[in-house]
Design brief:
With about 60 residues, this protein is mainly α. The protein has one domain. The chain is built from three helices and no strands. The radius of gyration is 14 Å and the shape is elongated. The model has no long low-confidence stretch (mean pLDDT about 95).
């Protein structure tokens, strides 16, 4: 899961079917995979909004 999340975060254009299959192979079902993808995507979105608006980082 973390390998998938890291790749989706760092190189989203490099995602392939095999990345999803690797999750299925270790027991994640399609709903689980969707949840993982949505959480990763939400944090990427929220961070880009904050960065784009110059929101200061908490110490």
């Amino acid at each position: 899961m973390l390998t998938y999340a890291d790749k989706l975060t760092r190189t989203p254009g490099a995602m392939v079917d095999a990345d999803v299959e690797a999750l299925r192979d270790v027991g994640f079902d399609d709903r689980d995979i969707l949840d993982i993808c949505e959480v990763v995507a939400y944090y990427a979105y929220a961070n880009r909004i904050a960065d784009g608006l110059g929101v200061p980082v908490e110490g």
